[in-house]
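Input record (one chain):
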Amino acid sequence: MLELGAFLQANIIPIYFIYGLAHFITGFAVALESGRASQLRLSSALPFLAAFGITHGINEWIEMFSLIADQIPTVAQEPQWAEMAKVGWKALSFVFLFFFGTRLLAQLVVKHKRWLDWLPVLAVVIYFLVSMFIYLITRRADGLPLRIELSEVWTNYFLGVPAALFSAAAMLAQRRAFLREGMPQFGRDLVGAALALAWYALLDQMIDATAPIFPTNFLNRENFLALSGVPIQVFRILAITALAFFVIRMLRVFEVEYVRRLDAANRARFDAQEEAKRELSVMFETCRLLGTSLDVTQILNDFLTQVVTLLDPMIGATIYLFDPSQRALTIRARRVRLGMELTAAQQTCSQNAGRRAFDASELAYETDLPSNTSFIAVPLSAQNKTIGALCLAHRAAFSNYAVIQTLARQLGIALENARLYEQVQEKEKLRGELLERTVAAQEEERKRIARELHDETGQWLTALGVGVGGVEQTVAQDPERAQYQIAELKNMTMGAIENLRQFVSDLRPTVLDDMGLVPALRWFAHQYAERAKLAVTFEAVGAKRRLPSQVETVLFRIGQEGLNNVGRHARATHAAVRLEFFETRVVLTVRDDGRGFAVNEILETHSARKAWGLLGIQERVNLVGGKFSVESEPGKGTQLVVEIPTLET
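The corresponding structure, as predicted from the sequence alone:
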């Protein structure tokens, strides 16, 4: 044993080299792995462990070169500051180890301890202050050896031992994290590394240089050599080699983590592709169904069936549409998955989300905490106007809002198409009814004309015929009486002519054909004011000109109908007709101060009370490519505005 001890002591320089090499290899291997992108908490602390291994390996090689220099007589003795610089370099390596232990431990504790982040900094400050104190008490010339001994002991016991113990504790805590993540093999490596680090703390920091203080006065390298016969550096090599072995084995965790992340990414990509495929299938089938019908009820039912049945994780869906008559959102359709139902609280959440989505025209969210049911509402739009909301209920995570928004846009388009189709159907129905009423009005007009001709003109002509026969009998017998009868017949003829002229004027005033629209409207306004006992004003603005015959006829008839409506319904005291000529259009306005009416209720498609006069005006305007609008409120009068494009004649 003595011979072995003597041999090892004689070869202490190679031992220092191997010892420093083991540290350096450990630090270099850790440095290579710490550059990887990893989600493991261990990765953020590894750079400090790498720095410790490299700096401490360099420290041991510096000791080796010092031993070599001592054996060469021609080499000058190291200066005093070099000894202190070596102590400082060793302290730096322990600081890196301290940061590694506290950083890793701070990430692994259940509740993050802020003091762990500041502990190494506090230790460095205290170490520096005590080092300055040691310097002050050993300033005398012969105090350098004592200063070096005290500084080494202070460095080992205050920095080295706590750093090693914190690092060992952090490795054991990381072992539990590996067990939770299903990687127990690396947990065993960490146990080995922690034990090796603990032995390293005992053999490198606690059993080191001799100093005249407890416990280094008996726990030192010389006493260890005397007891074991083997230099302490040999056991340090064994401890650091074991540490390097277990740490390098543990670093394989990054390869396993990379493989796991790669597998997870592949699975996620595959799941995303499957989800996208399924969502595209749902979108395609839903859009196909939306295009197969123009019935609103069928569209809504088919849409909700597709969404709730095929779009996971949806458990229910509700469609709200704005009802103008009620001025509120109303439920038009609702679906839930088979075997499920929405409670009153969940329905309230759905209504709140739908109302918010409709009001803000953006996504809205609500959550029913007792049932852990979430609601997402998407506005339904048509012609850049929000018409309702689609509210979906789900109990699992959902993030692909683009699918819902796309489906909502398609539903809005389908509802708009259905609404337009319904309007077309209603207009066709109204047009048919209007045609029936027009035919009936024509028949009534024919009857009136026949009655007028029979009762008025026919009576006059009959009286003339009888009077002419009487004149033939009396002209020879009583010339004077015959002359009187002829005068009476002349007056009767003039009355018949005037009656016939008035009758023709009622059918179509000749002033419209002879003088144009402006005189015709002025004449009719004057005639209507006298007949209806109503104050009527007429005003023509702009450069007056003749318009195409069809346009003049349409505007005259609209003016007639407008004033007739005032007399029949408005109960007004004053009416005004205004005709405005522009370069490419003409605008006719008929306004009164009557009782007015609710335009939406009268002109609504499904209204039971049909405004046939206004519908007739609309049809006339459509025939000449114009625009027609009605403005009215109860108690505030009515204004009809007709705008027709014109061409110069």
